[in-house]
What we know:
The chain is of the alpha/beta class and 194 residues long. It has helices spanning 13-16, 32-45, 57-66, 95-101, 115-130, 143-153, 175-190, and strands at 3-8, 50-53, 72-74, 136-141, 171-174. The protein has a five-stranded mixed β-sheet with strand order 3-2-4-1-5.
Amino acid sequence: MNELVVARHGESESSVLDRLNGDPSVDVHLTQAGREQARRLGHAVGGVDLVAHTEFGRTRETAELAWPQTPLLLVPDLNEIKFGQFEGTHWNEGYHEWVLTSPPDEMCPGDGESRLAAVERYLRGYRLLLERSESRIALVGHGAPIRYLLLALEDQPPVRILERIEPARPYTVEADALEAAVRVLERWVEAPAF
Length: 194
């Protein structure tokens, strides 16, 4: 890989309701606005050699609308974080408080995922993309893995509260910059702290 274009999926039925969705078995589709965002994303970015997406329907739907003739690659390691007992709730219905009061290695209640486990998984996903032979790859992903990557690109470790990622907004990352960002995240994994 020489260049990675990263974008969050288009507006979805859960995001428009501001509901947490970290379970890919929950059927969530793009809204009409999200489908239009996906098409605009493809036009804005232009051609790519491969489009990576997660197990969530909204990322695959965005990928297919943005680059309809391009091969797809499923990368489950870049799935959204698992919200456990907070699945389907609003951000401020418990998950926000849990994020503020729990260390990065604490598992989210109700069979959820710790921030540390999520970042370790994201690292596997980004490493997989770095090793691909295609020159220009698009990744349609989720807010958390993209925000952690954007922070790392600025040599910043993960933080407790993540700034939202705009739907279908592309960020272009050269391979050497992605490699450096991955190393930032790997260092944080060795000694996770907020």
